[in-house]
Design goal:
Elements lengths: L5 H5 L2 H12 L2 E2 H6 L5 H13 L3 E6 L2 E6 L5 H8 L2 H25 L1
Antiparallel strand pairs: 1-3, 2-3
Helix pairs in contact: 2-4
Length: about 110
């Protein structure tokens, strides 16, 4: 069995969009597939990867297979990204200050 982790799950933009959809509501596999311009087998493969990563669980109810988000399994990715928050905040603050200086200089020259 292939060992997968949360970073593999969020590496693909389609899987990130599936996560976003399922964060809003529980959907059937068919309902998820209908929202994308890719084949149903491709969506099934994405859902399989999300399931192997523990981010989505698939529950069979009657003839339908329902996809449920398991958001707690996204915590490792959040914690890893969060450690860089102050770095980005500092960079964005510095950029904002630069833009404010440019704007002030432009207003002085008018």
């Amino acid at each position: 069995m292939i060992r997968r982790d949360v970073f593999q799950a969020i590496a693909d933009p389609v899987r990130r969009e599936i996560i976003s959809l399922l964060a809003e509501e529980t959907l059937t596999v068919n309902s998820v597939a209908e929202r994308f311009d890719v084949s149903r087998p491709a969506i099934s493969k994405h859902l399989k990867i999300l399931s192997e990563c523990g981010i989505v669980s698939i529950q069979k109810k009657g003839r339908e297979r329902w996809c449920l988000i398991q958001p707690q399994n996204l915590i490792p990715a959040f914690l890893w990204i969060d450690q860089y928050r102050s770095l980005w905040e500092d960079k964005l603050d510095s950029f904002e200050q630069y833009l404010n200086k440019l704007q002030a200089k432009k207003q002085q020259n008018e």
